[in-house]
Automatic annotation (TrEMBL):
Organism of origin: Haloferula luteola
Domain Gfo/Idh/MocA-like oxidoreductase N-terminal: 1-116
Protein name: Putative dehydrogenase
Gene Ontology molecular function terms on file: nucleotide binding
Domain GFO/IDH/MocA-like oxidoreductase: residue ranges: 129-253
Pfam families, alphabetized: GFO_IDH_MocA (PF01408), GFO_IDH_MocA_C3 (PF22725)
């Protein structure tokens, strides 16, 4: 299938490299509003470049569009691509409010096209093993489920683009931008949240509207309790890995990025020793914790391949828009709780 990218910035570069490496798809074209950005991207990846959206979308060979624009600028290009008869894979967050996501979902249904998201932290062997342990009931009664994203962004990061740190285009701060993939992973593993009580603050940055630290207490529908802590003001030389930790009456697992810090169950199984030998390497540095460019494209590649496979099999992808909506709805509830000082039910 032939892919076109909307957006020629840092995330568009990740998309391009993933598309060049994937099976089942090829990088076909790029669109950017600024002609010089589109042309530079086109030269680098040897594809046609467009600075007029209609011309980009009118290409009959174009099958799938990926959206790599700022977070609060996902809605309009997604609606345009769907109306033009293209499938869409959109970066995180799918959009910055649940209402906007609902508009996108409705447009995809009307067009009869697939709308999928980038939920790339779901695509690695450790996550596969973690999810299998949950689905097999190895934790017994799940009692605790938490996520910790203690990252760092310097002031220059926020000053590098006018949209960064704004409610209108970033949709939020440390939670909506940096923590959303790990929050998605927490929900993917532990299930939906019933209620939240949260606090947010901006402690270490200037000239931004959004939080650089947030702490939320969670009550899950299955009864488990937990915490989300997300920040962009916790410095570390190499950066802290993003962590998801689940505990229950029969087991505990601590995931740090793509390796385990703990894999411990009351009942040992034959594959557990092999898993510890291969997936408990210890994260030397957090993936993207201090530098957003310091992430690989392999998980994006697997995400794209899953969507193509779903299209061929006539099913919804595992990273559907409905799945992507869950983390945005939770983050919005956290923001509401922080604003009002009250618990918020979902």
């Amino acid at each position: 299938m032939k892919f076109g990218i909307i957006g020629a910035g840092m995330i568009g570069q990740f998309h391009a490299r993933a598309l060049q490496a994937m099976s089942g798809g090829t990088l076909h074209s790029v669109f950017a509003k600024r002609p010089e950005a589109a042309e530079a991207f086109g030269r680098e990846f040897n594809v046609p470049a467009f600075s007029h959206l209609d011309a980009f979308l009118d290409d009959p060979e174009l099958d799938i569009v990926t959206i790599a624009t700022p977070s609060g600028a996902h809605l309009e290009p997604t609606l345009a691509a769907l109306a033009a008869g293209k499938h869409v894979i959109c970066e995180k967050p799918l959009e910055i409010t649940p209402d906007r996501i609902d508009t996108m979902i409705e447009a995809a249904q009307t067009a009869g096209k697939t709308l999928a998201a980038i939920l790339n932290r779901r695509f690695h062997p450790a996550m596969d093993a973690f999810k299998a342990a949950v689905d097999e009931g190895r934790f017994g009664r799940l009692t605790s489920a938490s996520a910790y994203i203690k990252w760092f962004r310097d002031q220059a990061y926020y000053d590098s683009a006018a949209w960064r740190g704004t409610w209108a285009l970033d949709g939020g701060g440390a939670l909506m931008n940096q923590s959303i993939h790990t929050i998605d992973a927490l929900l993917h593993l532990a299930g939906p949240v019933r209620a939240v009580h949260a606090h947010t603050a901006c402690l270490a940055h200037e000239r931004i509207e959004v939080e650089d630290i947030a702490v939320a207490l969670l009550e899950f529908e299955n009864g488990a309790r937990g915490v989300i802590e997300g920040s962009t003001c916790t410095w570390s030389k190499d950066g802290h890995p993003a962590r998801v930790q689940l505990c229950g009456t029969d087991g505990s697992v601590f995931l740090a990025d793509e390796t385990f810090e703990l894999w411990d169950f009351r009942t040992e199984r034959p594959g557990d020793a092999t898993l510890r030998a291969t997936l408990m390497k210890g994260a030397e540095a957090g993936l993207g914790a201090n530098d957003p460019k310091a992430i690989g494209y392999l998980q994006h590649q697997r995400n794209f391949e899953e969507v193509v496979l779903a299209l061929r099999e006539g099913r919804q992808p595992t990273t559907s828009a409905t799945e992507a909506r869950k983390s945005v709805a939770l983050i919005h509830a956290i923001y509401e709780s922080a604003r009002t000082g009250k618990s918020v039910s979902l």
